[in-house]
Amino acid sequence: MILVTGGAGFIGANFVLDWLASQGEAVVNLDKLTYAGNLHNLDSLRSDARHVFVQGDIGDRALLDRLLAEHRPRAIVNFAAESHVDRSIHGPEDFIQTNVVGTFRLLEAARQYWQALPATEKGAFRFLHVSTDEVYGTLAPTDPAFTEDHRVEPNSPYSASKAASDHLVRAWHHTYGLPVLTTNCSNNYGPLHFPEKLIPLMIVNALAGKSLPIYGDGMQIRDWLYVRDHCSAIRRVLEAGRLGETYNIGGWNEKPNIEIVNTVCALLDELRPRADGQSYATQITYVTDRPGHDRRYAIDARKIERELGWKPAETFDTGIRKTVQWYLDNPEWVQQVQTGAYRDWVAKQYAGA
Ligand code: NAD
Ligand code: TYD
């Protein structure tokens, strides 16, 4: 079996669902269930004995030791993290605790467990660390996309904490020989995405008749990848990635934020037209920019394609249509994640917007 951390969050839950459907191998899922963790994401696995859910913290060494001894996983896939840039600006402490200290504790537990494994199991063991393109910093409009050799230059508390965790993973390989793999992926979108991030926030706000807040001039560029393509890339790296290597994952889909929001509005106009016949785009409002806002991210995904033969299955057009349709089909999921804590966040972040 494998140990997945953060498997009740957006990407982790998609990964666990796809893993069990495609590989069938059992999963121990360790998740703290912060505001971003949602057990309803895993409802379809309730009576599936191959999925063992454990609520807990990757920083809890005693718990990690117990889980590793009890379940003896052949791999660890580390998704657990604080993941929202705007939250990291308001309160960076949790990002340091989970992304840096938590990853450190997980690496130490993995190292002790791995060192005591019999030779064949030891040789097959993998620690896959899931990271982000944001560690590379920002690009000017004509700069080439980030390769794995791009300098690490994080600009937000979130990306700095992820870069720190990437460094720890690298050092645990270099110093102790721990068989690690690191993936740095671009912005994901798709089902189960918490509506504090751009795409789900815009869908949810549009349908609720609320404003669609664009930071600054809306010309910041992100490189978008459908979440299930990210999951297939992680499976492939776990299967065949070279130890100690980093793989950038992306879909060659650079788009300015305003274009993303206009696309979402056009799909909603088609699939769920407003009663007054107006476009959802009339709800767009420009608000104060994010401090230190990175202007452009772009992933050069040639290494993973060349070495591992991975390519995304979705184009942006097919992926965004599926995503908007999923939110239209799952209003109860949206309602359920919009708890009191979510409402407090929205009030704080968009006060006066
Ligand atoms: P998310 O915020 O939706 O989910 C994070 C999950 O981790 C939640 O279920 C949360 O409960 C859990 N968690 C948080 N702290 C924990 C702790 N201390 N111990 C155990 N569990 C804890 O995040 P996501 O968007 O699914 O991102 C998953 C991973 O992928 C993160 O490491 C993130 O940096 C990385 N990533 C995300 C994107 C993206 O676009 N969302 C892109 C590239 C990489
Ligand atoms: P986000 O989904 O938070 O991802 P990240 O900051 O990790 O790339 O934001 C994506 C882009 O959308 C980013 O440039 C910030 C912008 N954005 C808005 O313009 N308005 C919003 O309300 C949000 C949440 C994001």
From TrEMBL:
Keywords: Lyase, NAD. Residues 3-323 form the NAD(P)-binding domain. Coiled coil: none annotated. Its cofactor is NAD(+). It holds the Pfam family GDP_Man_Dehyd. Belongs to the NAD(P)-dependent epimerase/dehydratase family. dTDP-glucose dehydratase subfamily. This is dTDP-glucose 4,6-dehydratase. It comes from Paenacidovorax caeni.
